[in-house]
Write a structure and sequence with these properties.
This protein is an all-alpha fold and about 475 residues long. Helices cover about 65% and strands about 0% of the residues. The protein has one domain: Hydantoin permease, CATH 1.10.4160.10. The protein has helices at about 30-40, 45-50, 60-90, 90-95, 95-100, 105-140, 155-175, 175-205, 220-240, 240-245, 245-250, 255-290, 295-300, 305-340, 345-360, 360-365, 370-380, 385-395, 425-440, 455-470, and strands spanning about 150, 155. Strand 1 and strand 2 form a beta hairpin. The longest helix has about 35 residues, at about 255-290. It is a multi-pass membrane protein.
């Protein structure tokens, strides 16, 4: 990791937020990295995703094994990106400059930022539903606020949404150190709610569930194998965005060891445990209600005890706020700042992100399957190629070397200027691999292969990057990091 910034802190390509991390900022140790991944996994969306996989026709235990397989792939990817990010010590959009060019890096950065902005709004909305459950349980008279609507959201919904929106903006306003502390709280907190919910659900079904149960129709042998592969890679695709911009956090780790240990605790250990408890809750719901309810807030709302409902709703709201800040607020803040560092700081990027997250009316997107699948799914499919291109360029072509000063250089002689600040090889690789990945993800006739969009995109993007870069490769592109 770079302990003192060797490059400029002001100028067309830099500001204090985008500069290399310093020794004083190296505060994200093993526990913090562990909590980062814990926070990333512990969301209402993650629970809904895990439960939704049951609908593909696999049994409970098959779904858990498939998700665990995906977790292992995610673990390997996090080590590759995390170690590189910690060593170079710069946020994702600056890290990407070595691969895509000092100006070309804006393309993958803004693609990642765009997805994060939409999910930031959606997660804020989902957290607000937990607050609404809490408020209605405390004061049933507030139901009168749930009838009128403005832009598709009732008055109580607006009040809850904007309250959480403001809290998250305040957290980010105090910088990455407060983000670290929020992550340390949010990750463990949700375990309290999930364990309590699991115990209540198991008690309601006499402590008996069937791991061989399934929510979808039974599958043949070939269909089971295809569904198993699909669930595994959908798990990776679900976390593809945070995986790509992991350098935003890894840059603040004091050592490679902290990254590897934090990743090991936070991904194969913690995410597997979260998958197991999510499936246990959903199988209990399947037995009790006849369907695997994808929203734990609905389950909480059905609990008779007011005290339990209040505690659970508060925990879910706190956890989702922490998750949202880590997963969907930090990335676009850096990505937007990278467009014009001289004028847009990390905090200003955060304000722009927050405003855009309201403007997209996330509650309408969440209720529109076509918007989720075709827009967010399509843009999200591009994260596979970005990952493959970054990994091949850093580990294979540059062999771990980065000229950090040139990441901020406006000189035409800079190592990462390429063609007017854009690397044609990287953009061609992203364009071709991205088109294939999006096609696999969205073309109706390939729906049975949708889950393969991430691995195909990553492998094709990496292969094209290698082939297009190998011949004209210049040693001046890299230097000691």
């Amino acid at each position: 990791m770079v302990l003192e910034a060797p490059g400029p802190t002001r100028g067309r390509l830099s500001n204090e937020d985008l500069a290399p991390a310093t020794a004083a900022q190296a505060t994200w140790r093993t526990w913090d990295i562990f909590c980062l991944w814990m926070t990333s996994a512990h969301s209402l969306g993650s629970y809904g995703f895990a439960v939704g996989m049951l609908a593909l026709g696999l049994t409970g235990w098959q779904t858990m094994v498939a998700l665990f397989t995906g977790v292992l792939v995610l673990w390997v990817g996090s080590n590759l990106i995390g170690v590189a990010g910690q060593r170079v010590g710069v946020p994702f959009p600056v890290f990407a400059r070595a691969t895509f060019g000092v100006f070309g890096a804006n393309i993958p950065a803004l693609l990642r930022g765009l997805v994060a902005i939409f999910w930031y709004g959606i997660q804020t909305y989902l957290a607000s539903t937990a607050v609404i459950v809490l408020l209605l349980r405390l004061d049933p008279g507030l139901r009168s606020w749930t009838e009128p609507t403005f832009l598709g959201l009732h008055a109580l919904g607006w009040a809850a949404f904007l309250s959480l929106w403001t809290v998250q903006l305040l957290i980010l306003n105090y910088g990455m150190e407060v983000v670290r502390k929020a992550s340390d709280v949010a990750g463990p907190v949700v375990w309290i709610g999930m364990i309590a919910l699991a115990l209540w659900m198991l008690n309601s079904v006499s402590w008996s569930i069937d791991f061989g149960a399934r929510a979808g129709a039974p599958l043949s042998g070939g269909a089971t194998a295809l569904a198993f592969t699909g669930v595994a890679f959908l798990m990776v695709a679900f976390m593809a965005g945070p995986l790509v911009n992991y350098a935003d956090f890894a840059r603040f780790a004091p050592s490679r060891r902290a990254i590897l240990r934090g990743n090991a605790l936070g991904i194969p250990l913690n995410e597997t445990a979260f998958v197991v408890i999510s499936i246990v809750i959903s199988l209990a719901a399947l037995k009790k209600y006849g369907s695997a309810m994808a929203d734990p807030v609905e389950l909480v709302a059905d609990i008779d005890s007011d005290a339990v409902v209040v505690v659970a709703a508060v925990l879910f709201a706190i956890a989702t706020v922490g998750i949202n800040v880590v997963l969907n607020f930090v990335s676009p803040s850096y990505d937007i700042s990278n467009v014009a560092p001289k004028y847009i700081s990390f905090r200003t990027g955060g304000i722009i992100t927050a405003v855009l997250s309201v403007a997209v009316l996330p509650w309408k997107i969440w209720g529109n399957e076509a918007a989720i699948v075709y827009f967010l799914g399509g843009v999200g499919a591009l994260m596979g190629p970005v990952f493959g291109i970054l990994v091949v360029d850093y580990y294979v072509l540059r062999r771990g070397h980065t000229n950090i000063r040139d990441l901020y250089s406006e000189s035409t002689d800079g190592a990462y200027q390429y063609t007017r600040g854009v690397n044609p090889a990287a953009l061609i690789s992203l364009g071709v691999a991205g088109a294939v990945a999006v096609g696999i993800a969205l073309v109706p006739r390939t729906q049975s292969l949708t889950a393969l969009s991430w691995p195909v995109g990553a492998l094709l993007g990496g292969a094209l990057m290698y082939l297009l870069s190998r011949a004209p490769y210049r040693s001046s592109r890299g230097g000691p990091s």
